[in-house]
Design a protein that fits this description.
By secondary structure, the chain is α/β, with parallel strands linked by helices. The chain is built from 16 helices and 17 strands. It has helices spanning about 15-25, 25-35, 45-55, 65-70, 85-95, 105-120, 140-145, 160-170, 175-185, 195, 200-215, 235-240, 305-320, 365-375, 390-395, 410-420; strands spanning about 5-10, 35-45, 60, 75-80, 100, 125, 150-155, 225, 245-255, 260-270, 280-290, 290-300, 350-360, 380-385, 400-405, 410, 430-435.
């Protein structure tokens, strides 16, 4: 049987990894797919570098549309990234009747509904395992492995850059700015790390997982997004003393009122496995009603780990290439005509618990005023820690840190309480608020 012909759009880190792994394991992949899978054409602006990667047997062009127009190409792999030209090329590939594999989480989180609708109309597949958590097969787990379950919640460390930074801050007691520069020097962070450190990248991935878990459209515009830039080393230290680690989590949860979709730093009990995921590694916890809690761990980025996911998609499409489109696994796990209209809740309606750090004047009555405000909002305290003034500001200091852990409350109520506490003359700096997730 003739091998499936693949065209790569972009042959950078992931593209070169895909080419190398496919070549190295081609016999085993063929045994699994039922026929060969060959990269026949590559589009890249740097044609000389691309040719040096793929050798003389693969045609290299500088125009991605030439790949899409080639009638011999069965599958187009989009590895360009971003929302702009990548969206146009994916839509053109679909219109041309090509199956598409993409690692572009930003594209799917923002334009996924349009892309999946176009693919369904043309009877082609869009596969995107590599878009979330690199080499971890979390998309397949959600779409297929856990299909018997009513998913209750998902919480994931799904950005390796921020997890590396938080791990270094905790281990070395350094502040964010110092560790970010080191992460850039080591290549863990981009020269412009905004998408990573502000939580946008993780939120893109959480949006995709939420759509698959709950059968709702992809709705990145409704996600709450908060990064790690305001975290201090002192917060990681205090969290540790209270039995917690701080992680940037992408969270989506089913509630009676709708779906929570949020990305932000979270306190996680140190005894949870996910709290001990360090460095640039990724991990995703999924809670299903039948299976209970499952954990998926591995490399969330990198050339060959991500290539592993790209090739898994190529194998899936090859197996189903000639199948009736109605018999394929739906893009978002649920049949397109059975998607839910459950609302994504605004952050003000989310219920969770909190870590609060207040820099306060070291004088009588401060704690009473703070706890009085919390009580007036019906916010109950789980634990409280007051540091010695000398420890916080040095000998003779007149200020100290007050750390409070709360029980569950509505975010909007907590916002009101923080505003009242911030207005106290004895609260000397902006209050640090970090949400707490037990993940039990």
């Amino acid at each position: 049987m003739k091998a499936i012909q693949v065209g790569l759009l972009g042959i950078g880190t992931v593209g070169s990894g895909t080419f190398n792994v496919l070549n190295r394991n081609q016999e085993e992949i063929k045994r699994r797919a039922g026929r060969g899978i060959e990269i026949a054409m590559v589009a890249d602006l740097d044609t000389a570098r691309a040719q040096s990667v793929v050798g003389d047997k693969v045609k290299v062009v500088n125009d991605a549309r030439a790949v899409i127009a080639n009638p011999d190409i069965d599958i187009v792999v989009e590895l360009i990234g971003g929302y702009g030209i990548a969206r146009q090329l994916v839509m053109e590939a679909i219109e041309a009747g090509k199956h598409v594999v993409t690692a572009n989480k930003a594209l799917l989180a923002v334009h996924g509904t349009e892309i999946f609708a176009a693919a369904s109309a043309k009877g082609v597949m869009v596969a995107f395992e590599a878009a979330v958590a690199g080499g971890i097969p979390i998309i397949k787990a959600l779409r297929e492995g856990l299909t018997a379950n009513s998913i209750q919640w998902i919480a994931g460390i799904i950005n390796g850059t921020t997890n590396f930074i938080l791990s270094e801050m905790r281990d070395k007691g350094l502040d964010f700015d110092v560790v970010l520069k080191e992460a850039q020097r080591l290549g863990y962070a981009e020269a412009d790390p905004t998408f990573d450190i502000e939580g946008v990248d993780a939120a893109h991935k959480a949006t995709i997982m939420s759509a698959i878990a709950f059968g709702i459209p992809v709705q990145f515009d409704k996600a709450y997004v908060e990064g790690i830039t305001r975290l201090g080393a002192v917060d990681l230290k205090y969290a540790e003393q209270l039995g917690y680690r701080i992680k940037l989590l992408g969270i989506t949860k089913r509630t009676a009122k709708g779906i929570e979709l949020r990305t932000h730093p979270s306190l996680v009990p140190a005894k949870r496995l996910i709290a001990n995921v360090e460095g640039a590694m990724n991990a995703v916890m999924v809670q299903g009603d039948a299976v209970g809690t499952t954990l998926y761990y591995g490399k969330g980025a990198g050339s060959e780990p991500t290539a592993s996911a790209v090739i898994a998609d190529l194998v899936d499409i090859t197996r189903l290439h000639t199948a009736d489109a109605a018999q394929r696994v739906p893009h978002l796990a649920f049949q397109p005509d059975a998607m839910s209209d459950l609302p994504v809740l605004p952050m003000s309606e989310v219920v969770t618990s909190y870590y609060l750090r207040l820099r306060v004047a070291d004088e009588a009555g401060v704690i009473a005023k703070v706890t009085g405000i919390l009580a007036s909002q019906s916010i109950s305290i789980d634990a409280m820690l007051q540091r010695e003034a000398d420890e916080v500001g040095g000998e003779g200091s007149t200020q100290t840190d007050l750390i409070i852990l709360t029980h569950d409350t509505v975010e909007g109520t907590m916002n009101a309480a923080i505003a009242q506490m911030q207005a106290l003359p004895t609260v000397l700096a902006p209050i640090t608020r970090i949400r707490k997730e037990e993940l039990a």
